[in-house]
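<tokenise_the_fold>
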Amino acid sequence: MNRTLIRADVRRFLRSPDALFFTIVIPTLMYIIFGGSAEYGDNPIGHGNINMVVLINMSVYALSQAAVGYTGTTAIDQLQGWGRQLALTPLTATSRLLNQVIAAFLISTITLVCLQVVGVAMGAQIPVLRFIAFCTLSYLTVALFACYGIAVVNTFKAETSISIASGLLVLLAFAGNLFAPLSGTLLTISRFTPLWGLGELARYPLTEGLMYDSSGIPASTPLWYALVNVAAWLLIFVVWARLSVRRANER
């Protein structure tokens, strides 16, 4: 582990206006509008309130943006030759990977903490043990979308690919039932998108599968739906990332 590299990566994230805007500012504003300041925010659901549901949804979206932003930037660095320079140092490939994992974990934690501080201050409610379970499950988002970020950048091989990946995340969040409750055909389609399963898993400690659709009608979703969704998309993104990295290295 190299603390200097980890510190440099985290500082670069905190100094990037784009990263802070998409990972902290936008999710926080959306939480305040649709959760913290909403009249229905105090309505009970599961073991907490609607306010907390919105906070969890925005946390999953924020973590996916943080993972894509960090890993995408790292992949760009590799394509531009930074990896070859690091290869001249005593750091092994395993050490470099460990550094990136730790940096991604720290960046994601900063993002998560910022949102939770705002959420608690604005009345989001959930028992402590269930809050810990939600935070733990949320980190699955980092693993899945880190692979997604690496795959997109190595496929398109340009700095703009990070913007493409981040822009697609907004659409995936809408499709994944994170920004607004869906119903009918849209909800059925939503269950096949990558952020839907992560949102369901993160909300499960609070709602235990219960959610309201766009008409306000409650509906319960079996846990295994979300588990299958996350496992399938993780497999897809891991394979895509491995193939794209291998192709980039061959060139």
Summary: The two ends are 29 Å apart (CA to CA). Residues 50-79 form the longest helix (30 residues). The first strand starts at residue 44 and ends at 45.
